[in-house]
Write a structure and sequence with these properties.
One of its GO terms (molecular function) is delta(3)-delta(2)-enoyl-CoA isomerase activity. It is found in: Mitochondrion matrix. It catalyses: (3Z)-decenoyl-CoA = (2E)-decenoyl-CoA; (3Z)-hexenoyl-CoA = (2E)-hexenoyl-CoA; a (3E)-enoyl-CoA = a 4-saturated (2E)-enoyl-CoA; (3Z)-octenoyl-CoA = (2E)-octenoyl-CoA. Belongs to the enoyl-CoA hydratase/isomerase family. Homotrimer. There is one protein chain. With about 300 residues, the protein is α/β, with parallel strands linked by helices. The protein has one domain: 2-enoyl-CoA Hydratase, Chain A, domain 1 (Alpha-Beta Complex). Helix content is about 50%, strand content about 15%. It has 13 helices and 11 strands. The protein has helices at about 5-10, 10-20, 30, 70-85, 115-135, 150-160, 185-195, 195-205, 210-220, 230-240, 245-265, 270-280, 280-300, and strands spanning about 35-40, 45-50, 55-60, 90-95, 100, 140-145, 145-150, 160-165, 170-175, 210, 225. The strands form 2 sheets. A 7-stranded mixed beta sheet has the order 1-2-3-4-6-8-11, with helices on both faces. A hairpin with a 3-residue loop joins strand 1 and strand 2. The longest helix has 21 residues, at about 245-265. The radius of gyration is 19 Å and the shape is globular. The N and C termini lie far apart (about 45 Å). Bound molecules: ligand LIBGGCMN. Ligand LIBGGCMN binds near residues 109, 150, 274, 275 and 279. Ligand LIBGGCMN binds near residues 147, 175, 176, 274 and 275.
Amino acid sequence: MAALTLLRRGSAPARLLSGTLNARNPCIGATQGCHLRRHFSNNKILVELDEASGVAIMKLNNPPVNSLSLELLTEFCITIEKLEMDRSCRGVILTSAAPKIFSAGLDITEMCGKSAEHYAAFWRAVQELWLTLYGSNMVTIAAINGTSPAAGCLMAMCCDFRIMADNPKYTIGLNETQLGIVAPFWFKDTMTNILGHRLTEQSLQLGQMYTTPEALKIGLVDQLVPEDKVQSTAAAVICNWLAVPAHARQITKSMMRKQNIERLVNHREADIDNFVNFIGKDSIQKSLQVYMDRLKQRKQ
Ligand SMILES: CCCCC/C=C\CCCC/C=C/C(=O)SCCNC(=O)CCNC(=O)[C@H](O)C(C)(C)COP(=O)(O)OP(=O)(O)OC[C@H]1O[C@@H](n2cnc3c(N)ncnc32)[C@H](O)[C@@H]1OP(=O)(O)O
């Protein structure tokens, strides 16, 4: 219900008309020093909204690795929807409050040893995150300040533009097959729209994690910058995006994403059933357990 903003809100012109920002350069207020900042946070998401520029910085704050638990997923969607409804907000920079990790992807413990009801609720929340972020009317920029596997990469791919810290230790990609699980069709569709069919097929089959130069080369990220320039670059980039007439940009975004969004909306319950059946299998539970054990052993 909460998602699909792009499709179901006829709000582009309304948002444009009600905007308090300079239509040619929405960031002009910020550069003139009239800063009005609002901070709000849930437990696991920190938000700083600069009303002068119309830009919110949204930081994932779930230490140690920003794994996407049911709680975080729920807070994430509430936050995006709140910003979407806020007339002073027109763009979001998504980043991490944790050093070195953008997000470790879905919280694997949510997919291990739980009831079918829990798996269904968890998967519905994952779907909701995708629908809310991929379908957002706002300009969304991923400021990827750390490693970003699986659903971490998915979140970044949902954004309109990806800036990544150029650190040789950081990697990004959809690594699901490495865990013995399968990225669902809407993860695949999101990547295909960015990388194309052949590269996505290879990437998904291998569960490939890319270094930052590799990610730039294939177009998985749009820009690499030194670590200390990620935020300032994101702020500059979002100003350019916000300078485009909002209704035209939003309708274009909707046109590009509508088909993918409709596909999940139309198959949502079947997708949940698939997940619940798949993840509950003994063989899959075993694979996830082995993967978690390996993660823990790396530290010893
Ligand atoms: C046919 C139809 C199919 C339908 C659908 C079927 C299947 C569904 C597919 C579901 C799609 C899944 C998407 C996902 O996102 S799965 C998650 C994938 N994530 C990963 O593989 C990342 C794993 N983590 C790491 O590689 C590393 O932790 C790191 C992110 C690189 C950070 O490394 P480091 O800084 O060295 O930290 P630690 O490894 O020491 O980790 C700290 C503690 O955090 C725990 N941890 C890490 N990642 C996760 C996670 N994703 N979930 C839960 N917990 C995690 C780790 O175990 C450490 O815990 P400890 O302190 O208690 O030991």
